[in-house]
């Protein structure tokens, strides 16, 4: 019996024929990286391959690394195995990794979403025999509203807070969610202030995608400057001394987990907006069907429930353990700006 084209081991997802790993969680010689979130792009590999728009992102996070960038749909061979990167729609620079060898095609999604957000290159289904899918939100309870409706709610919330003489503070992951928020906030309402971790990442992304003007929050920012305006911050800023100068403020979180009221209560958030950079239940099912795959491997999320449902639909579906964390592992930022010692590693 021949070994599978991609196998899961203690270091990550391994392609033995090419001697290369996909999004490994332990240091390896050569890694193909799907996107810049901390649970998928880790420090310590000797060589990195990723989409060219992800290169500045992972270099910002990991430092000086040996990395090469590829274009969408560009085929490159390693030991006779063909690889190519295809838009995942998750965040800017996020890729699905297609692997082809001896007539067999596998696709590893990393993280992905089928809802176009105006920042990331939209997701494109890729035909394959075996599809490795996340299922972060693999329950029928997760059903996303159209993005335009969510941002109407967010901007109306900001406008009401301004009329009430309060500062709006909205939490979102520093890479991906923050830039999506910035892109669609209504700047006619007021100014956008940003936490240092978010401003640092946004500065990296500005050459890749148009972003509105923002103002970094520093020790010199006066308390009265925030009133009526909005502050975009990572989740770890909530409850920290950093936020106290914004009183009186109202908090909100933008996350797929805001589907559940209990999540908002546990995080002591005033308002929750359901906005995710992952597929909802129907998005997962639709995306899998579009690949034409017969075999599906489910990772990180509601794997058991989702794979069981896929088997009921007739797929050859199973689960695999990984160290990916879905939406819970998307916010690790190590700010480098001197004097910002109060900024913490972003991990929720």
TrEMBL record:
GO MF annotation list: RNA endonuclease activity
Chain residue ranges for the region called Disordered: 320-348
Biased segments, Basic and acidic residues type: 333-348
Biased composition (Acidic residues): 322-332
Database matches in InterPro entries: MBL, RibonucZ/Hydroxyglut_hydro, Xnuc_lig_assoc
Gene3D superfamilies membership: Ribonuclease Z/Hydroxyacylglutathione hydrolase-like (3.60.15.10)
SUPFAM superfamilies: Metallo-hydrolase/oxidoreductase (SSF56281)
Official protein name in the record: Putative mRNA 3-end processing factor
The organism of origin for this protein: Salegentibacter holothuriorum
Source taxonomy: Bacteria, Pseudomonadati, Bacteroidota, Flavobacteriia, Flavobacteriales
